[in-house]
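> forwarded from #structure-qc
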């Protein structure tokens, strides 16, 4: 299993469950539309009045679960940030390629975009026997990965 394999799996998914922590430390989840880059960055939009926005501003650490057809999933932990300028335009292009109908969200009051950089990913396939499970940890530079057997 490679980074490209993980990208192929995530890129086929349209939705992910985002986990965040409230400023008071309570766990909260939300189903969001996602797009992914080959660097395994997950992009999603939200509005500034949402709980997830407030949570990520308070604590940028978050998690995702992606894929639930059958028993193949990706668990994903990372750090979120709001891109600006040319970076925002780049990530919007990736997001709108996956969600062209969401261009209309640009007119929504308080619309914003988050990009999540991976710190740890676990791919699990329980549809096979024995199950196939592989974990990856990502260095802060996001350029190097380390396979954890």
């Amino acid at each position: 299993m490679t980074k490209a394999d993980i990208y192929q799996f995530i890129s086929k998914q349209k939705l992910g469950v985002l986990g965040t922590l409230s400023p008071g430390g309570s766990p909260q989840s939300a189903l969001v539309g996602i797009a992914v880059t080959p660097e395994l960055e997950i992009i999603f939009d939200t509005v500034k009045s949402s709980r997830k926005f407030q949570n990520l501003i308070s604590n940028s650490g978050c998690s995702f679960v992606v894929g639930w057809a059958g028993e193949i999933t990706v668990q994903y932990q990372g750090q979120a940030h709001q891109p600006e300028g040319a970076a925002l335009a780049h990530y919007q292009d990736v997001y709108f390629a996956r969600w062209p109908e969401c261009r209309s969200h640009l007119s929504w009051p308080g619309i914003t975009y988050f990009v999540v950089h991976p710190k740890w990913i676990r791919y699990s396939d329980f549809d096979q026997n024995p199950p196939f499970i592989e974990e990856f940890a990502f260095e802060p530079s996001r350029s190097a990965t380390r396979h954890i057997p």
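QC bot note: Strands lie at 15-21, 27-33, 35-36, 42-47, 61-66, 72-81, 111-125, 132-138, 145-148. The longest strand covers residues 111-125.
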